[in-house]
Amino acid sequence: MTSLRGKTAIVGLGTAGMGEAPGFSALDLMAQASLAAIEDAGLKLADIDSVFTAMSQHALASMNVVEYLGIKPKFFDSTNVGGSSFEMHLLQATLALEAGLCDTALICYGSNQRTASGKLVSAAEPNWHEVAYQPRHPITAYALAASRHMHEFGTTREMLADVAVSARAWANMNPDAFARGPLTREDVLNSRMISDPLSKLDCCLVTDGAAACILTRADRARDLKQKPVYFLGGAGANWHRSIVAMPDLTVTAASDSGPRAFDMAGVTHSDIDLAMLYDAFTINTILFLEDLGFCPKGEGGRFVQDGRIAPGGGLAVNTNGGGLSCVHPGMYGMFLIAEAVTQIRGDAGERQVADCDVALLHGNGGTLSSQVTSLLGSGNTI
Fold it and tell me: Which InterPro entries does UniProt cross-reference here (predicted)?
């Protein structure tokens, strides 16, 4: 395997419109986050010579971004594999930088989904076999996975609820989190059923929000304003698009992307200080903990009990509050990057993970379809 370990680093980070941003378009928010990231890096807009983006509200994302920002990049990419796109962009930008195709990469996303529509945009599935059953995607697809996991492994709704409760506990320490306040297991269990067995509080938020980061080669990163956060490794895997084509509803392609990302990064599970997992629904966290090797298959529900992934637990997971309690503007993968960089820099305030040197980011797209794993590290790892 080609090793890209430590070849590039994130040197700038910006966010905008977290939660609700009335009066701003998706591109407005994207631009605000991008300009904030460029300023954070101590660079100028003219320094950006490559753009990597995907947007839920704009099909030709990179074209819209470069026009809005008024830049003329020499490399650009609009790969859209759903919410995992931005973990894939970390890998693609690293490849482009290492090949000398560009020098300074902007990775960005923005959405005004909450104030524009106020509801989760349905992820249409291409398989006609589903039409007769009138699925409510994407929620129905994830409910199928949750039901199967419960059937095979004895996972309970209480275990799913514990994922949401842990996420809220982290969110309560994050001033940027949209949903804050007390949340109990009973609150989750008693919330309105959306798609059995997933209740309203098993489902992600619908918010506005934007995030962006700046990536450059490691030799240049050391001379810039911020402490570099290094790209250690990454890998993607995609086994299906429609949920009816998923080989096994309890096993995601994270079981493939994860080991390859670990291998490139040269780290083991004991090295991981933070796990940022795409938690569009509570079942996601359980599936990804299993498939990424933090616990055996079928044990994810038991793994998350007793505050194991909450503040003070054995494994710090989704320390910003995740898509369940922090922010989820249609595609969430860019916010995994934002929190990991914040933690590795040591800028997370009350929720700061002690000695956070290695962060795992796992993005998910479609209906458990595209899976991309990335690992970031501090200067101590290089």
Answer: Thiolase (IPR002155), Thiolase-like (IPR016039), Thiolase_C_2 (IPR055140)
Give 3-state DSSP helix, strand, coil % of the chain, rounded to 5.
40, 20, 40
How far is residue 316's CA from residue 336's CA, in Å, rounded to a whole number? 13
| CB 93 within 8 Å of CB 52 | yes
Token pair of 93 as six digits: 């930008």
d(CA 65, CA 48): 12
Residues 6+ apart with CB under 8 A from 327: 18, 19, 176, 177, 178, 205, 207, 209, 320, 321, 335
Instruction: Mention the CATH class of domain 8-117+205-381.
Output: alpha beta
Instruction: Name the phi and psi angles at 186, rounded to 5.
Output: -65, -35
pLDDT tens track of the chain, all 382 residues?
568 999 999 999 999 999 999 999 999 999 999 999 999 999 999 999 999 999 987 789 999 999 999 999 999 999 999 999 999 999 999 999 999 999 999 999 999 999 987 655 555 555 556 666 677 779 999 999 999 999 999 999 999 999 999 999 999 999 999 999 999 999 999 999 999 999 999 999 999 999 999 999 999 999 899 999 999 999 999 999 989 899 999 999 999 999 999 999 999 999 999 999 999 999 999 999 999 999 999 999 999 999 999 999 999 999 999 999 999 999 999 999 999 999 999 999 999 999 999 999 999 999 999 999 999 999 999 9
Q: Up-side HSE of residue 228: CA atoms within 13 Å toward CB?
A: 21
**Pairwise CA distance, residues 287 & 146, whole Å:** 9
User: Tokens representing 14?
Assistant: 């910006």
Q: Taking the CA atoms of 341, 323, 308 and 262 in sequence, report the sign of the dihedral they define.
A: negative
- pTM over the 0.90 mark: yes
Return the domain boundaries, the chain. Answer: 8-117+205-381
CB 206 within 8 A of CB 112: no
Contact 43, 12 (CB under 8 A): yes
